[in-house]
């Protein structure tokens, strides 16, 4: 399966940062979303045009924050 999209919630944490690098390197995913309290600095990840970064407040988030987004796979590494 190629051309899939993946969303990571909490990609700057201990687990999420490794997962983000794996997804960027993977040919299975053509779109990757990194949503979290902060985003990974570009200097810490490989250059890619398939990454969408967005800062979100998990304490006040509601479903409308994701209303227009469609993801094939969602990884929740936020704790």
From TrEMBL:
Primary location recorded for the protein, binned into one broad class: mitochondrion
Gene Ontology terms: biological process: import into nucleus
Any single GO CC term annotated in Swiss-Prot or TrEMBL for this entry: mitochondrial outer membrane
InterPro entries assigned to the protein according to its UniProt record, in alphabetical order: NAD(P)-bd_dom_sf
Subcellular location field: Mitochondrion outer membrane
Topological category with respect to the lipid bilayer: Peripheral membrane protein
Family: Belongs to the FMP52 family.
Entry protein name: NAD(P)-binding domain-containing protein
Lineage, broadest ranks: Eukaryota, Fungi, Dikarya, Basidiomycota, Agaricomycotina
